[in-house]
């Protein structure tokens, strides 16, 4: 997983394989967006169904491709999923979630 935001420290835990740890400074708006049922469901579908593209993911979720694409972009930016470029007749990106649990640490002292 890459880290495009230097205020967030995302790691796959060596102590708990399959656990993704997300901690750092998330703005309230970003935190609210992260914890939506839609995003949690999106991550679950990627993990369980392993769609080959964002288009396939949108069909599985019965949502518009543009909305799913926006959510995928956000979740990739904060490191909760990866996009793998797949070459073929049409170039597309395969969303990947390679963990089973997300643990979020929120510092309330700030």
Protein architecture, described:
It is built from four helices and five strands. Mean pLDDT is 77; it is low at 1-13. The chain is of the alpha+beta class and 110 residues long. Helix 3 crosses helix 4. It has helices at residues 28-34, 37-49, 54-61, 65-77, and strands at residues 8-12, 19-24, 82-86, 92-96, 101-105. Helix content is 37%, strand content 24%. The chain has a domain at 27-98: Winged helix-like DNA-binding domain superfamily/Winged helix DNA-binding domain (Arc Repressor Mutant, subunit A, Orthogonal Bundle).
Distance between the termini: 27 Å
What is the H/E order?
EEHHHHEEE
Give the CATH H-level superfamily of the domain at 27-98: Winged helix-like DNA-binding domain superfamily/Winged helix DNA-binding domain
- Looking across the biggest beta sheet, what order are the strands in? 1-2-5
CATH hierarchy class name of the domain at 27-98: Mainly Alpha
pLDDT under 50 segments (min length 5)? 1-13
Radius of gyration: 14 Å
Number of strands: 5
In which range does the helix fraction lie? 25-40%
Characterize the largest beta sheet: strand count, sense, and whether it forms a barrel: 3 strands, mixed
Number of helices: 4
**pLDDT averaged residue by residue:** 77
Instruction: Report strand %.
Output: 15-25%
Q: Specify the structural class.
A: alpha+beta
Remind me, CATH topology of the domain at 27-98?
Answer: Arc Repressor Mutant, subunit A
